[in-house]
Write a structure and sequence with these properties.
Blueprint: E1 4-9, H1 27-33, E2 38-43, H2 45-48, E3 58-60, E4 67-69, H3 76-92, E5 97-100, E6 111-113, E7 121-123, H4 127-134, E8 138-141, H5 145-153
Helix pairs in contact: 3-4
The structure holds iron/sulfur cluster.
């Protein structure tokens, strides 16, 4: 396996950067990141976009694709800024893979909450996950570490 740079959601590594000021540490992701041949670049697009911690939870409005906090504040610009800064960071560092937190309006891959703040998931990706994928970075979530390890073993 050659040395690879992987972008990882900071909350999955135990950093208290989530909206509620907590983390979502995932042991499988922590173990992946401890492998010798992997260089980890921690990211948190929402904080990179200028949002504070803690902050209100936000969701993507399903018709307009704008992003609102739970009190109705439009935070689309901060989310887009965070996504653009994260992409630039990844490209500058030649990142080819990312492991991102599922269901997040920034980092979620394939599923996000539907904008009603009722806990309902719908198909779709978070703004950063989508942007990274559109730019050739392979995105996995924390439930797909085994799949990523198989790919990495062939690199
Ligand atoms: S933006 Fe991504 S890295 Fe930051 S707290 Fe949300 S899911 Fe975690």
């Amino acid at each position: 396996m050659r040395r690879l740079k992987i972008a990882v959601s900071a909350c999955l590594l135990g950093d208290n950067v989530r909206y509620d000021g907590q983390s979502k540490q995932c042991e499988q992701v922590v173990n992946l990141c401890s492998l010798d041949d992997i260089e980890v670049l921690k990211i948190c697009p929402e904080m990179s976009g200028g949002l504070p911690c803690p902050r209100e939870p936000s969701e993507i409005e399903k018709k307009t694709f704008r992003i609102y906090s739970s009190s109705g504040k439009d935070v689309t610009n901060q989310f887009n800024t965070g996504a653009q800064r994260t992409l630039k960071y990844c490209l500058n560092n030649k990142v080819t893979f990312a492991v991102l937190k599922s269901n997040s309006p920034s980092c979620g891959k394939n599923h996000v909450y539907d904008g009603s703040f009722s806990g309902t998931l719908v198909e779709g990706s978070g703004v950063t996950a989508k942007l990274l994928q559109e730019n050739g970075i392979q995105v996995f979530d924390e439930t797909e570490v085994e799949e990523l390890l198989k790919i990495l073993s062939k690199e």
